[in-house]
Design brief:
Helix 1 runs parallel beside helix 2, helix 3 (about 70-80) runs parallel beside helix 4 (about 95-105) and helix 7 crosses helix 13 (about 300-325). The protein is α/β, with parallel strands linked by helices. It has helices at about 5-15, 30-45, 70-80, 95-105, 120-130, 150-165, 180-190, 210-220, 225, 230-235, 255-260, 265-280, 300-325, and strands spanning about 20-25, 55-60, 80-85, 110-115, 130-135, 140-145, 170-175, 195, 225-230, 245-250. Helix content is about 45%, strand content about 15%. The chain starts with 6 loop residues before the first helix and ends with a helix. The strands form two sheets. A seven-stranded parallel β-sheet has the order 1-2-3-4-5-7-8. Strands 6-10-9 form a three-stranded antiparallel β-sheet.
Length: about 325
């Protein structure tokens, strides 16, 4: 959600009872401005039952490209409730990120780390002992492991492996393919303490998203078929630096179809550049997860979360009722 989940969306999620994150990504040059805006929005509409010592949102970093020194400076100034780490060049790189973020915030900012495999979950737990591990299944939109399992099998295997090596106390939240209340209820049944959603909020009124991108999201169906995890879109966008094992899941479009066997030609790059100038979203990258087919209308963030909670409660009632039959 880099460049899409900025202060308005992050604050709206937190005001609606979740924890919203500003997607700083690998470029932290504008982070201070985003957090200044977030703090202003929060002052205008204070939240109940939140800590007065931290800013009631989180900040997400793509660690292979983000400047640690600059990030520490801004995080120390604003003390967000949490920082979220994703995709270091090596897992060991997150040791310094964890230690410095804890020090600059007097251990008040919680450490979240996203992983997509059992091996990474255990290794990160042993290296950093984060407050939260985000277990990302392969259905997730945007960037993640090119090879991985869906959340249904990945989450319980991660939980079992962490328990076996003494890290069962780390909070686990689930991510990947969840776009409405039934998916949330399923993740809670797996043992998740919370659920992360990105694709659903592409159709929120607070998202910083082009109308053409949003239209592509709303018109997409059958997300397992209409999306693909690939390196094609990064190549076309000129985004270099992602670790080799990482690919981006996006909605299939003409740019992908023109890349035979994943090979991007100069002609394809030229067509993409022209589409970028014209705003032609028939060729431009639209990162989204397999849950995109469940996203069919634009709503406010507050309404999205209210609807999801209603669906979860309905599922709990149904399970409780049927368990008595």
């Amino acid at each position: 959600m880099r460049l899409i989940s900025l202060a308005p969306l992050a604050v709206a999620v937190s005001q609606a009872g979740g924890l919203g994150f500003v997607g700083a990504g690998y470029d932290v040059e504008d982070l201070e401005a985003h957090l200044h805006e977030a703090s202003k929005l929060i002052r205008q509409a204070p939240m109940k039952n939140t800590s007065s010592s931290t800013l009631s949102i989180g900040v997400g970093f793509i660690n292979w490209g983000a400047d640690l020194d600059k990030a520490v400076q801004v995080i120390g100034q604003y003390k967000p409730a949490a920082v979220w780490f994703f995709t270091p060049r090596e897992n060991n790189d997150l040791v310094a990120w964890t230690q410095r973020m804890k020090k600059v915030t007097d251990n008040e900012t919680k450490i979240w780390v996203q992983v997509g495999s059992v091996q990474d979950a255990v290794e990160i737990a042993e290296l950093c002992c984060p407050d939260v591990l985000v277990i990302q299944g392969s259905d997730a939109g945007g960037h993640g492991l090119s090879r991985g399992a869906g959340i249904i099998s990945l989450f319980p295997e991660c939980a079992d492996a962490l328990e076996a090596v003494g890290y069962g106390h780390i909070s686990l939240v689930a991510a990947g393919g969840v776009a409405e209340g039934r998916g949330v209820a399923a993740c809670l049944a797996l043992g998740a303490e919370g659920v992360v959603m990105g694709t659903r909020f592409l159709a929120s009124t607070e998202a910083q998203i082009a109308k053409g991108f949003q239209s592509v999201v709303l018109s997409s169906r059958d997300g397992g078929i209409s999306t693909v995890r690939t390196k094609v879109y990064d190549t076309l966008r000129g985004t270099v630096g992602w670790p080799e094992r990482i690919g981006g899941r996006g909605i299939i479009n003409q740019s992908f179809l023109d890349a035979e066997d994943g090979i991007v030609t100069e002609e394809n790059k030229k067509a993409y550049a022209e589409a970028l100038q014209k705003g032609d979203h028939g060729r431009l990258t639209a990162y989204a997860g397999t849950g995109v087919g469940l996203v069919n209308r634009v709503q406010s963030t507050r309404d999205i979360l209210y609807e999801i909670r209603q669906q979860v409660n309905e599922m709990k009632f149904r399970i409780h009722r049927e368990s008595k039959i």
